[in-house]
Description:
Layout: E1 16-23, E2 26-34, E3 37-41, H1 53-57, H2 66-84
Antiparallel strand pairs: 1-2, 2-3
Amino acid sequence: MRVTHPFHPLSGQRLQHVGTRYNRYGKRYLLRVDDSTVCSVPPQWTDMVSPDPEVVLGKGRALFRVADLLGLDSLVGCLLAEKRGERSRKA
């Protein structure tokens, strides 16, 4: 399995898949780095998941995806509302 996330320290390296685990954030792959090290990465950071069509169509030129910017907008809105003492609309 190859790590495909461009900012991961092991990006581009092929590692052995030794297991899968789940936590509150979802599925994670356990990859053997060497005899004593196993790292955990989300499936989206590997070649086991097809690439995001938005990234493929943009040929990697965009700094952000629309979904990421919308998520950031929601987070900033919640933080500002919390700072003002308002309740979050989504809570």
